[in-house]
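Session log. Operator J.P. requested a structure for one protein chain; no other inputs attached. Running the standard single-chain path with C-alpha cell output.
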Amino acid sequence: MKRASLILLGVALLSTGVVWIFQGVGVLKGSFMTGQQFWAWMGALAVLFSLPLLVRGWRTRGRRTTKASPDPAPGHGA
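Structure written below.
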C-alpha cells in the first residue's frame, strides 16, 4: 500500500510539474499561468520533489508476511 501511494503521489506531482512548466514558458496556453515565469520555476520544483517519491516507491518492496515456524529451543530437537 505504501509503495503504491508513493508512486501515485510521485506521478501526480510529476504530471502537475510538467504542466506548470509548459504553462510558465508559454507552450500550454489558456490559463492565467501562461507566460508567467514563476509557474515554470514552481513546475521545476514539483518535478524535482517528485523524483525521490518515485524512486523510493519503486525501490520499496512490498512486505510479505508469512508465518514461520518458531525455532526449536536450544538443546531440543533435530
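Operator note: The chain has two helices and no strands.
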